[in-house]
Design a protein that fits this description.
- By secondary structure, this protein is of the alpha/beta class.
- Helix content is about 45%, strand content about 15%.
- It is built from 12 helices and 12 strands.
- β8, α6 and β9 form a beta-alpha-beta unit.
- The longest helix has 26 residues.
- The N and C termini lie far apart (about 45 Å).
Length: about 375
């Protein structure tokens, strides 16, 4: 099972000091967070994509390429890449380039985004959000698998005998997660292609997340990719830890109350009770994270949000230290003990290259048998 950090890259004033970091400071902080994730042995760093203040990560492949050059083991991903407003041809080329530079240590998560004004900024209509996600991904899927593509759709200039470059590393396209909070069409899309499904999970009660994952799992099996239990699922979650739970609540409360993503709404106590948010000790984080399996089944990737709401970088790095040293080792062991037989590991480039080679050998053997 893979564990990591996902960031939205918000530039938010620290409510305890009133200080707001500059964009430069926030971007550099995100890089430091990724490097800390590698240092403590986490598996994944994922950055969001936003084109509006107060968020700064508008160019994920630029940031991830920089991080790739400074890390050795970390898987680099997105949370999410906007399949609706980005040109699928540019996505194919940008992420194939990143795949080469990172020696395969990358994947990406598709999403529609949650900021309506972004659509017209890129010449798109938000009312076509689902249709854009479906058509654009269908083209992207072909661009990574077919050397020459002729294509015509509703939302983009037709392509005639087009080859996107570079071609995917080792002939294996980047693994794709489809991220969605509430759209069954996206769960269906992930299932249709046999891709991964990531539920952000941080704003919703367990019953809702369970419903979305069960839909994806059942449709994954319907399309012949395996059993429902073999579907590839990822979850989000957010944590804030201190040695003493009262200290954690006292320190995190002003950040929660003023956070742009969930401040000024339900109380910290209600939000903690009804969603995956855990504010307490490392032991409490372990206990609650293990409970995700009760409604999501055995899953492959757990990402934590730890760097939002104006939390200072020093505090964020402390959180990652605690994850790497105290939380994730226990979670790895406990999830492994509980994993049912036949549930696959999280996809990696190396494993997918090996699987593709095995499939090719099998196909060659079938040809020889047919010819004999």
């Amino acid at each position: 099972m893979q564990f990591g950090i996902f960031t939205v890259g918000d530039v938010t004033p620290d409510p305890t000091t009133g200080r707001t970091p500059s964009e430069h400071e926030r971007i550099k902080a995100m890089v430091a967070i990724a490097q800390k994730a590698e240092e403590v042995g986490l598996d994944v760093f994922a950055t969001g994509e936003h084109h509006n203040p107060p968020f700064v990560p508008s160019s994920p492949t630029t940031m991830l390429g920089w991080i790739a050059a400074r890390t050795e083991n970390l898987i680099l991903s997105t949370s999410t890449t906007l399949i609706t407003t980005n040109d699928p041809v540019k996505i194919a080329e940008d992420f194939a380039m990143l795949q080469h530079l990172a020696d395969g240590r990358m994947d990406l998560m598709m999403g529609r985004g949650n900021t309506g004004p972004v659509y017209p900024w890129f010449g798109k209509d938000i009312r076509q959000g689902i249709n854009l996600a479906v058509e654009n991904y269908a083209l992207l899927y072909r661009l990574w698998r077919e050397d020459v593509v002729t294509w015509e759709g509703k939302f983009r200039t037709p392509l005639q005998s087009f080859t996107s470059t570079p071609r995917p590393l080792d002939g294996v396209p980047p693994f794709v997660w489809h991220g969605s909070i509430r759209s069954p069409e996206i769960a269906e899309q992930a299932a249709y292609y046999g891709d991964g499904f990531f539920h952000n999970n941080i704003f919703w009660p367990a019953d809702h997340t369970k419903q979305m994952i069960e839909l994806y799992r059942s449709r994954y099996a319907h399309y012949g990719h395996g059993t429902p239990e073999q579907a590839i699922v990822g979850l989000g979650g957010q944590v804030f830890m201190r040695r003493n739970s009262q200290d954690a609540v006292r320190e995190f409360r002003p950040y929660f109350d003023n956070a742009p993503v969930y401040g000024h709404g339900p109380s910290l106590e209600d939000f903690t009770q009804q969603t995956p948010l855990t504010v307490g000790t490392p032991e409490q984080v372990i206990e609650k994270t293990l409970s995700f399996r009760d409604y999501a089944g055995d899953y492959q990737r757990q990402l934590f949000l730890v760097d939002h709401a104006g939390l200072p970088l020093k505090t964020v790095l402390e959180q990652i230290d605690m994850l790497g040293e105290e939380v994730v080792p226990v979670l790895r062991e406990e999830f492994a003990k509980r994993r049912a037989a036949g549930v696959p590991e999280a996809p990696t480039h190396a494993a997918r290259v090996a699987a593709a080679a095995a499939t090719a050998v099998g196909a060659d053997a079938d040809k020889e048998v047919s010819a004999s």
